[in-house]
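call fold(seq) -> tokens
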Amino acid sequence: MRLLKARRKVASPQLARREGLRIGADLLPITLKLNPRARKLIVKVHPSTGEVTVVAPSQRALGRAMDFARSEFDWISKRLARVPKPVEFAVGTRIPVRGVLHLIAVSEKGRGPVWIEASGNEPAIRVSGDPKHAPRRVLDFLKREARKVLEARAIEHAAKLGTKPSRITVRDTASRWGSCSTNRALSFSWRLILAPDFVLDYVVAHEVAHMKEMNHGPRFWKLARELSGDIRRPQLWLLQNGTMLHRYAPRG
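ret:
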């Protein structure tokens, strides 16, 4: 009878881990990632969240990642200074809803836990109950509003093309405002409810156009223009202001 030696499992290389870079009394969290397709050590600072990442091409280079981050400290500091300051949905804060600033204010009575009131000196988001619950209630309200508006616009645009989405998802994405899969599933960032209507509508039209053309060729852009009209204005707005939308209710 032939005996087979038991094989030891070889641990797979760690693809990502978190470490801290000590800067005086502060500790800056840094994500270290292994990517064999990278040619060299690269440091990145996310423009919206401020997350610092060092990408290494090999395990050996990964061991030098923190030293590399220290050597790039001045560059990292300059990029972090450009990251928008976070804004919580606290009472007394002004936040944009569909591109218009609204004051978050407490009210004893109203149409529900949270509602928008357009009367008075300025538009307001009214929140009933304990003020300490306002941030969560306002966030939940805006996500519901985003889903309602995004779904309605997506269905309306898709109908113009003689189709309909298989699914519509609303999330908190960091790198894209919307996406479309090959099976016509659409996904959008809830933060689009903070942007002006012409921006939200363009993103929806863009992704709906992908339901017919999964590319960025001439036929795709023709469809996008037919659905949205002017595409340069919303593209420019997102380029100049998109990062700022991530300062509101920052991810934990």
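The CA atoms of residues 20 and 112 lie 44 Å apart.
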